[in-house]
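## tool: complex_structure
## caller: assistant
## args:
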Amino acid sequence: MLQVEHLTKIYEGGTLALNDVSFEVPDGQFLVIIGLSGSGKSTLLRCINRLVEPTKGRVIWNGIDITAASPEELRYIRRRIGMIFQQFNLVKRSRVITNVLAGRLGYTNPAWSLINHFSRSDMELAWQNLKRVGIADQAYKRADELSGGQQQRVGIARALMQNPELMLVDEPVSALDPATSHSIMRYLEELNQKEGVTMLCSLHFLSLARAYADRIIALKDGMMVFDGLPTEIDDARFREIYGEDAEQVEIK
Amino acid sequence: MKKRPRPLVRTVVYVVLIFVGVLIYAYGWKVTDISLEEPRQPQRQEQVSRALHGLLNPDLFERETRRQTAYAYFLMPCADTPLAQPEVVAGQPYITLSAYCGETRDTVGIEGFNFRPHSEGYVRWRQPGSDTARPLGALRTDADGHFQGKFKVPTVDPGDQPHIVEAEISWPVGLPWPSEALKVTVERMVETVFLALIATTLAVPISVAISFIAAHNIMRPVQMPLGGFLAALLPLPLGWVLGRQAFQPVINVALDLGHRGWLSVPILAAVAGGLYITLTRPMPRLRLTSNPRLAGMARYVQMIAVSAFALFVGGLVSGVGTQVSLALSRILGGILGNILGTLAELLTLLLPPLGGLAGILILGSLAGTLLETLLSHVNSPPVQRGLGLVLGTLTGGLFFFLAYRGIYGFYKAGGEAPLTTPLAVSGAIAGGLLGLVLGADYPLPAGLILYYMTRTILNALRAVEPLIMAIVFAIWVGIGPFAGVLALTLHSIAALGKLYSEQVESIDPGPIEAITATGATGLQVIIYGVIPQIVPPYLAFTIYRWDINVRMSTVIGFVGGGGIGFILQQWINLLQYRQAGVAMLAIAIVVATLDYASAKLREKIV
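## result:
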């Protein structure tokens, strides 16, 4: 169970990115966070694994207070939480296989990783995950030689290397075309349903959210303005979340 | 109505600007003394033409020369008895004169027979008993091996011995061999290229380390409480002295053992083994004890032991290295022995200061910990301010004192520095005020301070041309390639440091975020996230810098830095333009080749 309590983040310079956000996520839920650009979705996800330090509030996961953890403890927590990024965040010049293996760094002995040595079981796991997302044949290509959809799949494979219990997914398909978007979302759905990985996914398109989410949270200007089932968002609530001028866009 | 005056105003402004521009340019033209008067002087044209002739006709090859000589005696002034002339042998070259005696400035006819046809040579006048001959004119033989001409008797002391008129022709024979100039040029060019290579190689590791310190994005988050910083800084002089004294015996023992050669290997193994066992078994248990004082002490004992061990190993390596280098000095012309020996010597020199550094770090860390324990008992804003005041006063006074003494001693060794007390006191006051105002828990942006200091030093060094640095180094280490290497290395460190650090500042933070999110340690993030992003640009810059260094090393010899520049300057000064042409040709070829190669390499990397 993930508990977010009164999370607030004020950046240097005064920007209020998150304003007293609180919610609970039971294990195995596929939670989608929606909202306009700049509403705080990315900040919220990053506060959970403390890539961004919250100004106020707590994040408690399975009884562990992430916000109060020491640097050592934080590493042990982070390696159980996978993260996927909007811009894929792969090391462009490194090969696909190296990028995927980097996901295992939280579990590797630091001395071995210094000389780029990974154990055989790590290598096998990497190949397994590459096959799982369907890009095993691209393993030795440079990451920037791949298309957007392929790169995001590398990102997923990297996150899978951690055997995560929780995944933070920051707008995974915003940079992709509609068909590829669906295939990526289906990987996440499979992980969530088959292996019970808790998903916290921020999305731009409400139609995608409706298709994949068990539950939706909406942010506006850093505050939570909706928390409920996808079916509960009607036109009125939609305009509340996105503003008066917004129009629904279908992703088919 | 507002728009109307605008175009007119703009035109006027443009005209004024153009006029000012022309004035500035005209002034510059005058100041740089551009004129066509000098180049049109006939002597200048003749000199240039002579120089170009030589440069464009480089003395690359030479052939053996064969000569033919014939001579005749000439008496000054004329005497009654005719002079005996060398015997004419059939088939051998000989000369006849129209007169065999005379006075200064008499015109004498000369004819030569049986010489090699179509050859060139000189007619010379040789005074009795003299080694040197005075040229009288050039000669050329025709198809029959015959020549004729006239010369004037030179102004010489007549004496009573006969003078000698000799005619000599020479012609090249055999295969062309590389000339002296070519051989010297090749040798020096090799020296030049290696000069650049070694300078670049030495500069790279230092620049890589410096580049992280000079990177704004890496240094900004590095912060430290002011109190801790000052407390660690205060015992610096004491730490230095204690470190050197305490570790000196360790170093001496190690050096001595190292010099014994083979004995050092088992001793090293024993000491290493013992230390390893101590560090991995009882020590961690000690450090985790609930008694904080014991744990703290254990930590310091460990630090001291590790430092002593490192210095011990250093001494052993250095001693062994010297022995090995001596043994290798007979193999391969001693090149392996040379590099090993110099490095071992360098290590020996560095060990005592490293001991001092270890002392500073250990004592500083101790002081910092003491401060923390003190603060854990009593911590409140007035205490922080008070601590800031005390520490600031002490540190400020101490460092102003040391700095002043150091600078004064550098400029004027010995003697009492007059302003010591007032400077130390003002340092103490400044430090104290700073400490009081900021308080001991002020987060000092130590990273940024280091960043600005490093950047300033790098900028200053980059501003000084290596040629100028080479002049200073030549005074210190003597004229020759070593001075050139030092100058180029120093400048390369400054230039590469800046280029590298700009790369570090422009890395994509995304992958770094992603790898941190997997639970990797800081070092793993650097190796998997930072390094892959910066290696290709780093390599490209290194190759670029090597290219520049090769160009610089061709001319660094002009100021005593060794390489081809040295000999080129000599040849030009001696007006030996043909030889200078060889050097210039070599430089052009090497630089053009390396330029092309480096461009191709860089293309492949990036």
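## assistant note: The mean pLDDT of chain B is 86. Chain B has four domains: 5-34, 64-178, 179-220+449-606, 239-362. Handing back to user.
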